[in-house]
User: Fold this.
Amino acid sequence: MKLINTTNSSSILVQNQLAHTDAFLVETYSAGNTDVIFTQAPSHYEILISNKYRAVQEPEIVKIRDYFLKRKIDTSTINPAGIQTIHTDRLIEMSIPIVEAI
Assistant:
């Protein structure tokens, strides 16, 4: 699975996310029929995975999560045990809280 950055093609979605949420970074990606929206806010990261045509498979979820953990998320600022995932057949939402420095 190869993720292709499609942020430039999704400018309206990106502008709306930036205007109406606390996110300061929004990027969109595509892997065929699977779309991914990655957002970063002061207190958390969000990864939204969707596929209009079929259920999102567990291996896809793991590969996408690992992709962002390796390339986009500062893993020293998160607690992996705090990751919350909401599953539906065609939509997966991962919320990754940023741990406040003490």
About this structure: The CA atoms of residues 82 and 97 lie 7 Å apart. The first strand starts at residue 4 and ends at 5.
